[in-house]
Hints:
Elements: E1 12-16, E2 21-26, H1 33-39, E3 43-47, E4 64-66, E5 69-72, E6 75-78, E7 82-85, E8 90-94, E9 116-120, E10 131-135, E11 139-144, E12 152-158, E13 166-171, E14 175-191, E15 196-205, E16 217-222, E17 225-236, E18 241-246, H2 247-254, E19 256-258
Amino acid sequence: MEMGLIPAESWAIFLDPRSDVIVVEGPSDDALRDLLRDYGNKVEFRRVVSEPHLATRFKDTQPYYGGSSFSGSGSSCTLGFSVRFTSGVAAIVTAGHCWPMGYSPANSIGNHAGPVVSRENPTSNQPSHDTEVLSQKRYSGRIYVGLDAGAWKSVLGAGNPVVNANYCVSGAKTFEHCGLEADQVGISKFFSDDGVWVDDLTRTSPSRIDHGDSGGPFYLDAPNGVWARGTAVGFDEVANHDYFQLWSYIASRFAVTICTVYEC
């Protein structure tokens, strides 16, 4: 395929490994009609339905990206990955210890991320999980990455991490860190400072996250995007480990699927 046939106004072009087709994101398929006709089911067009996203982690606007900073009710956290319920309703996941049910956190310019509509928050020494879902706003299948507060990548899909592989995390407090090696997957961890057990975690080293990064995207980086692997839960400075809720648990607990388009 000749890339010169793709109009300059297109938002993105990438290979979707699940369907083995070339995906073009853009505002209109008018300039792609010949290409779509000639290549048939080998090319898929996805229309970008909103205005250009000129926001940052700290001044995000709808549709909200993962990796953005929201605060309130005594907590500052990071939004994780955008998802869809089986009903088709869009939402976004983060850590369960961030905000209570019904609460809608805000960012530095007063935009609200939407209320917490489902939650699992560890509150005792009985094993639990640390994840929640916000909804009723617009959300994007993109996350903020890098050390630039406005840099982003598209989400390509989701799954669980594997032992001995390297991953990245993107938090609103410490930004992006890569090279985190997963040394245990599917474990439980007792967080002594909070007195709680959390199940279904991935443990990585070295520790890179901090308070304010909770809920942030944990992912496998790729040249054309990222693959969701979970969300940030906590860290152990002494043992030099970070901990992330497994994607498979998040997906099954809330009956959601990952969002991979500009606006979910």
